[in-house]
Inverse folding.
């Protein structure tokens, strides 16, 4: 069953797949190797020591987590049957290229889209092992429908100016809860009590 680490494991799986794709078919940027980086908000601040985005790069930024509206009701029925909570989630990522010129950024983004379109399903060994995945689990990657205005509003909350980015959804991460402890057997005996007639 996928555990609470599955959110981080999904992001690491995407980062690893993109980095492997860049290594397999390199984007020529001044002889340097392009890498993908799973980032957090602070990493967009290029003036900060904490920034890990070393150009040329593609940042993979988890900006939103939402329950999967289509599968939530179905998994609620499964929960009623097996007593184990199941929360189907969609992870929303922004893929943003980083380079020293527009041509290189466009090439990085184009290669990233090619990799993601060629490998839209992550399963088995493509999934980072930290997520507690079951053998039958998979993560489907697809381009998100997000307006340019919504992307710009997202960048308004980040410590960087707007950059060309492509939104993707990792669907569906099923976060399983713990099995509820069964009620203990009745161990109390009342002597002399009789059932009502």
């Amino acid at each position: 069953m996928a555990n609470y680490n599955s959110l981080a494991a999904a992001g690491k799986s995407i980062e690893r797949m993109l980095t492997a794709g860049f290594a397999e078919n390199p984007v020529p940027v001044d002889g340097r190797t392009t890498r993908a980086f799973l980032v957090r908000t602070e990493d967009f601040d290029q003036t900060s020591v904490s920034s890990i985005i070393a150009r040329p790069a593609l940042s993979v930024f988890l900006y939103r987590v939402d329950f999967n509206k289509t599968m939530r009701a179905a998994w609620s029925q499964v929960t009623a049957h097996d007593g184990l909570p199941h929360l189907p989630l969609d992870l929303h990522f922004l893929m943003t290229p980083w380079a020293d010129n527009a041509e290189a950024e466009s090439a990085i983004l184009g290669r990233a889209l090619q990799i993601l379109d060629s490998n839209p399903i992550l399963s088995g060994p493509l999934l980072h092992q930290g997520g507690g995945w079951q053998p039958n689990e998979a993560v489907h990657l697809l381009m998100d429908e997000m307006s340019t205005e919504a992307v710009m509003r997202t960048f308004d909350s980040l410590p960087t100016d707007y950059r060309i980015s492509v939104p993707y959804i990792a669907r569906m991460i099923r976060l399983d809860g713990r099995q509820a402890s069964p009620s203990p057997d009745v161990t109390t005996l009342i002597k002399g009590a009789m059932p009502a007639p």
The beta strands are 35-39, 57-67, 86-98, 121-123, 138-143, 166-176. Residues 72 and 146 are 22 Å apart (CA to CA).
